[in-house]
Amino acid sequence: MDRSPIISVIGTSTASPGLYELAREVGRLLARAGCTVVCGGRGGVMEAVCRGVSEEGGTSVGLLPGDIREANPYVTIPLSTGLGEVRNFAVASAGEAVISIGGAFGTLSEIGFALRSGKPVIALKSWHISEGGESPSPMIEATTAEEAVRLALEKTGRESHDRG
């Protein structure tokens, strides 16, 4: 069975207008590439990426910390985990690759979980970290939405299912 790539998108719940539009574009591009997007399902970057996915007719899954009513209006499939912030592990683990946009400490925990489990993490205006203070960073830097999506798809070893 040939299924679409699953990409997790993580980031700040209080996105500036610039980060919001960047995340929205990432969502559009992932949907155009035929990806299923997994995120935390709430506001900020999570809302923006789901909005972009929705605008392109794609599918987003929001793994919510508690009540399903916390979901942003653009999530296709809201799932209440009942796990609180522990759901960050599920968000980071769900994707074949992770795109991090902006972010605070919750995002940092998701980055740690993803890297610990061997997932490629693409940073787009996000945290800059290194293991033990050494270079190079285990994260892959991207400067545009297009580059972040291309790198995520390359790192999954899967081809885009571009829907035009």
UniProtKB/TrEMBL annotation:
**Would you name any one GO CC term?**
cytosol
Gene3D superfamilies per the UniProt record, alphabetical: 3.40.50.450
Pfam families for this protein: LDcluster4
Protein name (Swiss-Prot/TrEMBL):
TIGR00725 family protein
Q: Which organism is it from?
A: bioreactor metagenome
